[in-house]
């Protein structure tokens, strides 16, 4: 029987691997992924995965050849995997509607967001002082695994309080790793729930943007001079859905 070898590509991660420990396979800043096959199209059409909201994660896990822990991927690096998977599977041209007009961008030409890399470290640990309360904290950049825990917690709280949305505060509770030197979950959660000023929370989010590695997923809509987020819709991995 003939032997077949699937083609693969090595992609560069926005983090350059500098936010992972040296013993992590992600520390070299590269991931090898394979081209999509009929098996991956089966994953994309799996109704159970779609209903659970995990279909793209199942796809990416199937495509990644490198021996990594998928949960360890920083969100920005996961975005790079997403775009590379789409380009290898269906080509670089992405057509979508924005404000009633059709736009087409070349996904292969997307560049990394320009951020301050000087504070990057392999512990993924950063210091920050809230500008209003002057409280000193440490925080981390979130991974896929963190996002899954956040979503699970938010969903659980919605079952108890159906009209509440705790996404912002829950995210902060998972991102902050210590408050005034106290790294206990009790101290962090108490601080976020009762003492964190909205102005300080916003200041932290703005600071995170300056150091968070990611692809620049923005574009200029036709006839405008202001960049906006690229709509990541069905046609990204289901190009025939339109």
Order of helices and strands: EEHHHHEEEEHHEHHEE
- The proportion of strand residues reads 15-25%
Gyration radius over CA: 20 Å
The largest beta-sheet arranges its strands as: 5-6-7
Q: Kindly report how far apart the N and C termini lie.
A: 40 Å
Q: Shape from CA axes?
A: globular
Largest sheet: 3 strands, antiparallel
Structural class: alpha+beta
Mean pLDDT value: 93
The helicity comes to 25-40%
* Tally of contiguous helical segments: 8
Structure characterization notes:
The chain has helices at residues 38-44, 47-52, 55-63, 75-90, 144-160, 167-175, 185-194, 198-211; strands at residues 8-12, 30-34, 93-98, 101-106, 126-129, 136-139, 176-179, 218-219, 228-229. The protein has a 3-stranded antiparallel β-sheet with strand order 5-6-7. Strands 1-2 form a two-stranded antiparallel ribbon. It has a two-stranded antiparallel sheet with strand order 3-4. The chain is of the alpha+beta class and 242 residues long. The mean pLDDT is 93. The longest helix is centred in the middle third of the chain and has 17 residues, at 144-160. It is 36% helix and 16% strand. Strand 3 (93-98) and strand 4 (101-106) form a beta hairpin.
């Amino acid at each position: 029987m003939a032997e077949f070898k699937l083609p693969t590509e090595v992609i560069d991660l926005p983090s350059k691997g500098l936010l992972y420990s040296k013993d992590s396979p992600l520390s070299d800043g590269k991931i090898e992924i394979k081209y999509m096959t009929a098996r991956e199209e089966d994953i994309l059409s799996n109704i159970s995965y779609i209903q659970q909201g995990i279909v793209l994660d199942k796809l990416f896990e199937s495509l990644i050849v490198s021996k990594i822990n998928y949960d360890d991927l920083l969100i920005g690096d996961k975005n790079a995997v997403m775009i590379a998977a789409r380009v290898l599977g269906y080509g670089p041209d992405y057509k979508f509607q924005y404000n009633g007009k059709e736009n087409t961008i070349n996904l292969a030409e997307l560049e990394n967001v320009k951020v301050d890399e000087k504070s990057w470290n392999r512990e993924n640990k950063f210091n920050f002082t809230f500008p209003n309360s002057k409280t000193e904290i440490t925080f981390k950049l979130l991974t896929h695994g963190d996002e899954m825990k956040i979503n699970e917690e938010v969903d659980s709280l919605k079952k108890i309080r159906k009209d509440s949305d705790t996404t912002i505060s829950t995210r902060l509770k998972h991102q902050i790793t210590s408050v005034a030197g106290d790294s206990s979950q009790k101290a962090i959660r108490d601080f976020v729930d009762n003492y964190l000023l909205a102005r300080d929370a916003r200041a932290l989010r703005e600071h995170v943007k300056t150091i968070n590695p990611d692809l620049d997923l923005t574009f200029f809509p036709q006839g405008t001079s202001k960049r906006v987020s690229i709509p990541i819709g069905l046609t990204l991995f289901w190009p025939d859905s339109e």
